[in-house]
Write a structure and sequence with these properties.
This protein folds into 2 domains: 1-155, UbiA prenyltransferase (Tetracycline Repressor, domain 2); 158-291. 69% of the residues lie in helices and 0% in strands. It has 14 helices and no strands. The chain has helices at 2-8, 22-26, 33-60, 62-65, 75-78, 83-101, 106-124, 132-149, 160-184, 188-191, 200-224, 238-253, 261-267, 269-287.
Length: 291
């Protein structure tokens, strides 16, 4: 039962919460003990919070998930995890997250509560509205970044990163919808009704627009943000971002995968290499090169 609960918490999805670390890294406080501790704590609590959301989603969608080709094997739809156990776990995770969150900051608690309420609205209503569903998912990623911001004292964090994170989230969201539409084919509407409001040509156009906007916004960040002012070395990271965007697009349209972006991140080696090289370059520019 504990293993079933752990599977329902979706630990592989915790990779999304790396966005909480962005303010720490991009504000050059990665090696400051207190900000590092607070941010890692915020990230851990957001992992528990996101797990409570996944449990809530599975409880609410248990009937529809039983008709999904993959989701029917999840612990709650399959009956492996009793509903009453999942309900208790949901309450405990939520109380632990919000309770311990006060030791980080009141702002963090407000962001965490907003994130949970947003996901309730998404599960019950917003996920059935085309375009709004993806924008809601993107808002969740921006809230992760904001959770990192309110957890520590920020010196030079650029608001341009909010723009980049928003666009990147939309890019992944529309890519996910395209992959779902292509994979589920004729049964797409029955499994995820919102797909009825999308077509592959429409999603391809949206992805083209978002890809361009993401690249331009990130490029502007590399020489307009306060922390990069007077140092054009940040522009060296643009090729890694460009390759990662193209690689994911290749996986979605050619390899027909991408309905679970976190799985792509954990399994696709070229994408992982580009992200690692981007991260190492960022660390070198921010923490090794002279200011």
């Amino acid at each position: 039962m504990l293993l079933a609960l752990f599977k329902t918490m979706r630990p592989r999805q915790w990779t999304k919460n790396v966005f909480v670390l962005a303010p720490l890294v991009f504000d050059r406080q990665l090696f400051a003990p207190k900000p590092l501790f607070l941010t890692l704590s915020a990230c851990a609590l957001f992992c528990l919070l996101s797990s409570s959301v996944y449990i809530f989603n599975d409880l609410l969608d248990v009937e529809s998930d039983r008709h999904h080709p993959e989701k029917r094997f999840r612990p709650i739809p399959s009956g492996e995890l009793p509903i009453w156990v999942a309900t208790i776990a949901l309450i405990i995770l939520l109380l632990v997250t919000l309770g311990l969150g006060f030791f980080i900051s009141t702002g963090f608690v407000l962001v965490a509560a907003s994130y949970f309420l947003l996901n309730i609205a998404y599960t019950k209503w917003l996920k059935h509205i085309p375009l709004v569903d993806v924008f809601t998912i993107a808002t969740g990623f921006v809230l992760r970044v904001f959770a990192g911001v309110v957890s520590i004292h920020i010196n030079q964090f650029s608001p341009w990163l909010y723009v980049v994170m928003s666009l990147l989230s939309l890019y992944l969201g529309f890519g996910k919808r395209r992959a779902e539409l292509a994979t589920l084919s004729q049964g797409a509407n029955a499994v995820r009704p919102v797909l009825e409001g999308y077509t592959i040509p429409l999603l391809d156009q949206l992805i083209i627009i978002i890809t361009s906007a993401t690249l331009v916004s990130y490029s502007l960040y590399t020489f307009l943000s306060p922390i990069a002012a007077g140092n054009h070395a940040m522009m060296l990271t643009i090729p890694f971002v460009l390759y990662a965007l193209f690689r994911y697009l290749y996986l979605v349209q050619v390899k027909h995968i991408g309905s679970a972006p976190e799985e792509v991140l954990l399994t696709d080696r070229p994408l992982q290499v580009s992200i690692v090289l981007w991260g190492l370059t960022i660390l070198y520019i921010f923490y090794v090169l002279p200011a």
